[in-house]
Write a structure and sequence with these properties.
GO terms for molecular function: guanyl-nucleotide exchange factor activity. α1 packs parallel to α5 and α2 crosses α3. This protein has a single domain, classed as Dbl Homology Domain, Chain A (Up-down Bundle), CATH 1.20.900.10. Helix content is 60%, strand content 8%. A two-stranded antiparallel ribbon has the order 1-2. β1 and β2 form a beta hairpin. The protein is mainly alpha-helical.
């Protein structure tokens, strides 16, 4: 009650939120692994079900708990925007809260960017496998811009041949 502020605290902690980007990047693989091992191993499935029944888990699944960190940064961003909307313009916390929102928004962008990069790399791997691994196109600096059907016109007789293009 003596100093009702949160902006200054969030400002100090917000830079650590960028670490969530790594978690988010590997989230799909982790979920797939849990699914695979739950289907493959009755013992694993039993252990997971047994743990999920514990009171501390709040009757939620492992997958639900795994999703929480993915949702955390967008939730912080939303709550902070709402806080700023309701905060008086002359509040002592306004400047720090605005700076915190800026940092948290950057962390959210960082997470979203990490997801897009991993999706892009995954798609490039799929294309690489489709092409028979003839050329090494899987490189972190490569990016899939567009793919789709095209018509190739022959220079001599103007006949059209269907092709599939990866740009």
């Amino acid at each position: 009650t003596t100093t009702p502020r949160i902006g200054d605290i969030l400002q100090k902690l917000a830079p650590f939120l960028k670490m969530y980007g790594e978690y988010v990047k590997n989230f799909d693989n982790a979920m797939e692994l849990v699914k695979t091992w739950t289907e493959r191993s009755p013992q694993f499935k039993f252990i997971i079900q047994d743990i999920q029944k514990e009171k501390v888990c709040g009757n939620l699944t492992l997958q639900h708990h795994m999703l929480e960190p993915v949702q955390r940064i967008p939730r912080y961003e939303m709550l902070l925007k709402d806080y700023l909307r309701k905060l008086p313009q002359d509040s002592l916390d306004r400047k720090d809260a605005e700076k915190s929102l800026e940092i948290i928004s950057t962390a959210a962008s960082h997470s979203n960017s990490a997801i897009r990069k991993m999706e892009n790399l995954k798609k490039l791997l799929e294309i690489y496998e489709m092409l028979g691994e003839e050329e090494d196109i899987v490189n972190p600096s490569n990016e899939l811009i567009k793919e789709g059907q095209i018509l190739k016109l022959a220079a001599r007789n103007t006949s059209a041949q269907e092709r599939y293009l990866f740009l």
